[in-house]
Write the structure tokens for this entry.
Amino acid sequence: MAPYGSDDTTSDDSMADTDTAAGRRKAARYVVPVAVVGVAAATIGLVPALADSGDPDLPKISAQQLIDKIAASDVQQLSGTVRFSTNLGLPNLGGLESSLLSGANKGGDGSSADPKSKLTELLSGSHTLRVAADGPDRQKVSLIESAAEYSLIHDGKDVWGYDSRSNEVYHGTADQHGKQQREKTPATPKDFADEALKSVDDTTSVTVDGTVQVAGRDAYKLLIKPKQSSTTVGAISIAVDAKTGMPLKFTLTPASGGAAVVDAGFTQVSFAKPAASTFDFTPPKGAKVTEGDDAAKAPGKRGPKAGAPKAGKDLAKGRDGFDVLGKGWNSIATFDSGSKGGLPTGAGGGDMGGFLGSLGDQVTGKFGKGTVFSTRLVNALITDDGKVYVGTVTKSALVKAADAAR
């Protein structure tokens, strides 16, 4: 079936009225109850592996109706397998980048089973997750690795992380961990779709782009495209289950073309109630168990860096305490790193600044001099006086923003 070629966009009156705005907010807030599925990374070709096939003959639907369908969806129980890939175009440092990032997350005597130590492993490459949910208080996600498995289980007030490779266990509570991870780290197609829907405004075109099958289920394709030219985001495609309204697949392609930056989708999914035993966990014999409170107090754990955004009133300045310049897809977050003189030099007199500088592009402007670090999606400018500008925008857009801030 050919794409519907819908002309529905967010600039239509129906997309601009109060009820519609409320619907979009509801769609963005709606969360399939996979509170601890945040072990997977934030930003993500697996098209053949996902076994998308066919163009099922479904009733026509408008973009607004499809967004409303997502908002009205109320999937509470599911189990399945998610395959996802990230291709940010990060520089190849021979594994050094993963070691540095994992070390930064783990810190001190932290446990390898702490979910924070797993997040950066998912920033590149392809991964397989097994997920299950039974309401808001029971979720499980397992990261399937070579000859090993990492599982994160939320069962009532308890959150358990288990790394079979190291035989280490992390134990925390839902209040300590689950809510924070759910809000900050998307993993399933639904999680990514929620984040994308938050960006839908008058700078965005939203259309229905035909139909597809994902994991054997009929789905509509919602196509989200920025209208602004300075963004690095090309398009976002979301396959929405025709029956339940739940997103089954999420694909983000960059404006530069080529392989998807983010590709996440179910290869198998069931909406039947998972067995209660799915969420049972007892630390294996001999496993090292780290309590969440102990991990936070472990040597090597550091507090906020000097100059970092503070809680309270500073948070009102913008998302995560940053000032936000521009609007829509051209939004740029900016803050003062507190590092005068530009890039850090590193401990022991090492030329860390020179090393990092070699990975970026030197730029100049009215703001002075700086270095731009680029990926296929997110770019960041660090000026020589310590200012940082970051967003899903082009290098030239960052320079213009820095110039305008002077």
Summary: The longest helix spans residues 18-29. The radius of gyration is 22 Å. The first strand starts at residue 77 and ends at 86. The chain has a mean pLDDT of 76.
